[in-house]
Every structure is written in C-alpha cells, then in structure tokens.
Specification:
By secondary structure, the chain is of the alpha/beta class. It is built from ten helices and twelve strands. The strands form three sheets. It has a six-stranded parallel β-sheet with strand order 2-1-3-4-5-9, with helices on both faces. Strands 6, 8, 10 and 12 form a four-stranded mixed β-sheet that branches. Strands 7-11 form a two-stranded parallel sheet. Strand 4, helix 5 and strand 5 form a beta-alpha-beta unit. Bound molecules: guanosine-5'-diphosphate-beta-L-fucopyranose (GFB).
Length: about 300
Amino acid sequence: MYELAGKRVWVAGHRGMVGSALVRRLAREDCEVITASRAEVDLKRQDEVEDFVQAQQPDAVIVAAAKVGGILANDTYPADFIYDNLIMEANIIQAAHQAEVGKLLLLGSSCIYPKLATQPIDEDQLLAGPLEETNEAYAIAKIAGIKMVQAYRKQHGRDFISAMPTNLYGPGDNFDLNSSHVIPALLRKAHEAKARTENQMQIWGTGTPRREFLHVDDCADALVFLLQNYSGDRHINVGSGEDMTILELTQMICDVVGFEGEIVHDLSKPDGTPRKLMSADRLRGMGWSPSISLQSGLATTYDWFLANAAG
Ligand code: GFB
C-alpha cells in the first residue's frame, strides 16, 4: 500500500484528458498535486525536465503526458508519435530516478498488443506477435516505456509501475475530426448532421472492428488505485472488460444525440485492428472495477461537447 496522504504528486500532462481527470480524482486524496505548464517545462527538453523535478522534489510522478490521436493521426504522423512519446517518457523516468522519486506510474495504451492477439488480451501477450500497422510507431514508444519502467525497477530498485488503459473517452476529449478518436468524432458528426437536418452521417471503415471503451474518470480512479495498491514488474490492463462493434457504438451515439438518419461508410479510411478487448482480470482481482456505464458516459460527454466544443 502506497500512502498518498501528505505526498507531493506530479501529474505530467495535466492539461490532457487523462491528466485533467487525474487532477480531479487526486483532489479527493489528502495529497498535494504539482503541475507544470508547457511554458514552464517543455517535456521534450531533458534539462528542463530534470531542473523541474530537482526543484520540486515530488514524492510520486504520474506520466500522463503523451502525444495521442485517433487512427488517422497515428497513421499520418508516425514520426511525431514515436519521437514525442519516446522523448517525454525517457526524460521523465530518468529525471524521476535521479531525484529518487518514490513512486512512478507510466500510462501506455492497449495498442501495445499484437494486431491479432487472442481475445480478451491478457498482459502476457505483450510482444507475442506483429503490431497493427496504423499505430505501430505509437505502440513501439509505449512498449519502450514499459521496458524502461521494468529496467529501472531491476537495475535501480525503483518502485516504478505501468498501466495500459483501453480506448478512453470523456470530458476534455479532442473533438477535431481529423485527429480525434472514434467517440468524439461520432458525437460531433451526429450532432452536426442533426443540426443541418441531413439524412446521412458518414463513419470511417466497415464498422465491423470491435473496441472496448472506458470513461476517463473511471480510468483516473483505476490509476490512483494502482498507485496506492500495486507494485510489480508487469504492466496492468485498465479496461471495462466489454467491447462492441463500431456500428453498435454509432447507433448508441445516434440515440444519445437524437440523430435518426442513415449511416454510410467511408471505405477509404482504415479499420485498424479487428478487435481490441483487454482482459480486465488482474485489476478486478485486485479489487477495482469501473462504475460509469457507456450509456451514461456518452450522455455526459455529449453535454460536455455542447458546452465546450460544439462551436
Ligand atoms: O478511435 P480510433 O481512431 O482508434 O478508431 P483505434 C476506432 C475505430 O473507429 C476504427 C472507426 O475502426 C475507425 O475506422 N471509426 C469510424 C472512426 N468512424 C470514425 C471516425 O469518424 N473517426 C475515427 N477516429 N474513427 C487508436 C490508435 O486506434 O486507439 C492509438 O491509433 C491508440 O494508437 C488509441 O491506441 C487508443 O482504436 O483504431
């Protein structure tokens, strides 16, 4: 058990969807949350990261800083995805080691697993087969992060751990149609089609791929749970344990938004991996499970979009 009370916790990447959910969640613990704006610390500059960590002396660090995006962004900008993610995680992990930080939690992604992994995907399937091509660069960077955490545990005895969340959504998500993940994209598309009284809405690909989704507040809760209760070499999956087809998701989103038109397919866009359902057994076995249903999570995310991003 890692006691958070009285600790100084640096949330690296606090402006992102996961980072801001972590800041909200940590406000319920008796700890001090430290953040750094991009103007204060450029996480891609090693000296700036080291100076910040040395000056702040956090007790714990959560690496929520990452360059993230949907399937098209990953496929289009692989150099950005591999460089930004490698350099940020390397800088933060090394700086945390030098400053003798007591606990570090690195966030990865379910795309670290092989494209055709056996479902549901158990943690031990890491590196058991070739990766999905559309997000290989991002996946390689995140696998390197897992391996760094393990290496610093082994060589330096650091209590560094890693967690692999499934596809996340929620308030603070990116609703830009070119770079977003599927949920914010479809919320925006259904909303705009309804507002323009169009009778069609377009989705990418065949609609047959299956995905698992988790609300970001559930994810933040799981991450704080792991920070407090887990210390081990193996990365831990963070998911809902349920998946659905993109077409089923589209229908749920249309119901939430109130769009009743036809769904058409843009088959020039990639499907990505056919199925990505992680086994949630390890985390559940430790005593954590999600509490936000997809139905209610989609409704509150749509409310957030209307208030903050609908334009
Ligand atoms: O969420 P998404 O972009 O990411 O796409 P991935 C999921 C599925 O939704 C794919 C389909 O099969 C898409 O083709 N889809 C349908 C759409 N319509 C749309 C749309 O309008 N926008 C988007 N974005 N998708 C990402 C990885 O993979 O998942 C990242 O690229 C990361 O590296 C992230 O791991 C969690 O699940 O395919």
